[in-house]
Write a structure and sequence with these properties.
Layout (H helix, E strand, L loop, with lengths): L5 H7 L5 E5 L1 H5 L6 H8 L5 E3 L2 H13 L1 H9 L15 E3 L3 H15 L9 H17 L2 E3 L5 H11 L1 H4 L9 E3 L5 E3 L7 E3 L2 E2 L2 E4 L2 E4 L12 H6 L5 E2 L5 H8 L3 H8 L7 E5 L7 H14 L2 E6 L2 H13 L5 E5 L12
Parallel strand pairs: 1-4, 1-12, 4-7, 12-13, 13-14
Antiparallel strand pairs: 2-3, 5-6, 6-10, 8-11, 9-10
Length: 336
């Protein structure tokens, strides 16, 4: 088995639509710090929770006193108080859904760019060019919670030269008569946050987006995200069955997952492990059985390709072409 280069698989893809599924590898391509999130995905024993309510209170106190320093401590890859902060943060293994989500989000927000301007114009420009064929000719799916996909668009929108050539980004959220951004199903939607996102909140079975200032595309930053993520719409269960139960709560998430089985043409996959994501694989299988969907899977090395091929074949998904994900110009120019 030989890995193709990204430009080779693009040239090979003749049939449209051209669809894209993004996982944490999309983020890692921008910042290697995001590997810490993949560590959590691949080792459920690392899902830990706060030991006591007192620990939670101490954590909140330190966060409020020096938020940026707190983020820097978390970014080191440990969820613990440092001696410099004067306290040891105790953790213990816990299967509890809330504590698992809390750990994932604390780790995510520790490495997350502060705001859209943290993404350089050059990075945004390259990312938009990477996304362009999918936004123009198909659909983009992501299982990430973060803002990077949207912020790439926001950053490009702020550049006059880029903004005139932007492909359409439609996540289905539109302003209602009260000035709130609610999701409404539309055939024009081409971006799908399949496991929710940090800026999406629930309203019974409906969902809406956080808006902090009326006049900006996305006036949200890491501090405001961190201020209250307890009410975000996020799929965090460590099992596929548990994820399905969470998805069933919201019409938006159900609609996102159902879009997979409608796919035709080709699906390019970047940085998705599919660990405990049978609910997505089942829908991709339905699409392949119905339309002959072609799969192009980005991996780091041959062994990754063999493992992913075995995993997908076990789920009944065939016709997979693997390519070297490092040759894809996601945030930076193509590597040779």
């Amino acid at each position: 088995m030989n890995l193709k280069k990204y430009n080779e698989i693009l040239a090979k893809i003749k049939n449209k639509p051209l669809n894209l599924l993004l996982g944490n590898g999309f983020n890692i391509n921008l910042d290697q710090s995001f590997k810490k999130l993949s560590d959590l995905e691949t080792n459920s024993s690392r899902h830990t929770g706060l030991e006591t309510q007192n620990d939670k209170n101490k954590m909140s106190e330190i966060r409020d006193k020096d938020t940026e320093r707190y983020f820097n401590e978390l970014a080191k890859g440990t969820l613990s108080y440092s001696s410099s902060l004067g306290e040891i943060y105790k953790i213990k293994p816990s299967p509890n859904e809330e504590s698992t989500l809390s750990l994932i989000l604390h780790r995510l927000l520790a490495v997350h760019p502060y705001d859209a301007s943290s993404i350089r114009e050059e990075e945004a420009s390259i990312c938009i060019d990477f996304l362009r064929p999918y936004l123009n000719n198909g659909k983009v799916f992501t299982i990430n919670y973060d803002m990077l996909l949207l912020w790439a668009v926001v950053r490009a929108y702020e550049n006059k030269e880029l903004s005139e050539k932007l492909p359409e980004y439609n996540d289905g959220f539109t302003l209602n008569k009260n000035g709130m951004q609610y999701w409404k199903k539309t055939p024009k939607q081409n971006v799908f946050y399949c496991h929710g996102a940090l800026d999406i909140e629930p309203d019974n079975r409906d969902v809406f987006k956080r808006r902090f200032e009326q006049m900006t595309l996305l006036s949200i930053n890491r501090r405001s995200l961190f201020s209250d993520f307890s009410n975000c719409v996020l799929v965090s269960d460590p099992t596929s069955k548990g994820k399905v139960k969470q998805i069933e709560k919201y019409d938006y998430l159900k609609s996102c997952i159902k879009e997979f089985k409608k796919l035709s043409g080709s699906l390019v996959i970047i940085g998705v492990s599919f660990q405990n994501d049978d609910h997505i694989l089942d829908e991709i299988k339905k699409a392949q059985q119905k339309s002959g969907l072609n799969i192009f899977y980005g991996v780091l090395e041959i062994n990754d390709a063999k493992n992913k091929e075995n995993l997908l074949n076990e789920k009944g998904i065939k016709n997979i072409t693997f390519f070297d994900v490092n040759t894809a110009p996601i945030w930076r120019k193509q590597l040779s």
